[in-house]
Amino acid sequence: MQGPLIDTLARRGVTRRTFFKYCATLASLMALPPSAGRAMAEAMAAAPAASRRPSVIWLPFQECTGCTESITRSHSPSIEGLIFDAISLDYQETLMAAAGHQAEEALHHAMKENEGKYLLIVDGSIPLGLDGAYSCIAGKTNLEALKEAAKGAAAIVAMGSCAAFGGIPKANPNPTGAVSVSDIIKDKPIINIPGCPPIPVVMTGVLAHYLTFGTVPELDKLGRPKAFYGETIHDRCYRRPFYDQGKFAKTFDDEGARKGWCLFELGCKGPVTYNACATVKWNAGTSWPVESGHGCLGCSEPDFWDGGGFYRALSRPADPLKMAATAAAVGAAAGVAITFANRAKKSSAKAAHETVTLADLEK
Amino acid sequence: MSLEDIRVVVDAGESSPYQADALSGNAPVLLRELAEHVRQLMAAGEPTAIDLNALPLTPADLDWLKATLGEGEISVTLHSDGESTLAETACPGVWWVTHHNESGHVVSRFIEVAFVPELVKAHPEDVKTGLEYLESLIFDLS
Question: What is the per-residue pLDDT across A150-161, written as a single tens digit (0 to 9) for each?
């Protein structure tokens, strides 16, 4: 790639005006002053694409690749994806063409060449159990790889809840001994971008901020950028007026659910979850979980998987570990009964099952 | 069972989540801020912008603000990555700017104070490309 980023964009049909518009919106989303949009656009448009693009190394550990899926499906792939043209993504297993020895060589070359300057992106948690044997790349445990790559990094981005807080691998009983990046690395600036997966524009926004200003954005106490994680889902939720009026959906098919009332009693974790879903939304701004009729799972908070059940309202004591022995026995009995009921349901569902054909979907 | 057998009920009325929506009282003060920005534009030629999404404004506030500022003589529509409108208000130099994405949702909203919003002007680099294109058209004539 040659010439400034803006030329590359132009070749792909993205005009200067489109790019400036994107940067203005990005600055607005990040709660930066409107003038920052222009500064961003100019800094990025002029970024010399060929010579010294900032090197970015992306290491995948104990993860599902959902974060990569999310970022590569950002809603304006023509632009947000091209933020990547302003960087030199030197190692990303899912996206890179090289494999095996060549890939390892690219990684070590990038680390040596850009020592002290590269941005390290990590997705996935790091297993410490069995001396880290649960997850290895090129014969190295994730722990070794992380320590080695972190040494020369200017900053680390922990992409997704697994890298930021341990995520699903760390959920009870945490069989692999998974921990987060910040549990291991203590001497580098770490930006946590939690979410399962994080919102694409949050990822690209943080990258754009780093590229433009060369600094880490302002972070909250859990290391998350305040611009995106400054407010709870609940505070920005369009169903908030119903909460204030005490209008709640009690089941997923009652009158309240149909009328779009608050999902708090159905287990919505919006009040304790800091993320930007309510304002930025998902899938090209189409919708987001609460707008689709389901409560927030709280995926951008630490240990969201162990919150005591996605459908249990927050105000009820929800710690399964504190359940008394008798209650556990009652629970077990109820569980058996439910299993039988489910089995009956399953067989009747099987009997009534009709295969959906393509023609059905096109009706 | 086919899809048609599932009864879909759509409730009209009382369902708008914005029913509690009302003027917050945050909009009128913006007029004073705008006046200050316009003075600055006249004195130093300095353009500014107010990010409306960054302020605690209700939809009713935005409607009030838009109606109060009124409509001017000129409005520009930008067709790129969704539609954007840049409309001058009844106060020349004050522009109401709305950016939509490809699916038609508003992604950002600004009030710009400028003689002409930066986005409307053609960039010299683009003009250069335009000239090359024009020359190629002339070349094709012969």
Answer: 999 999 999 999
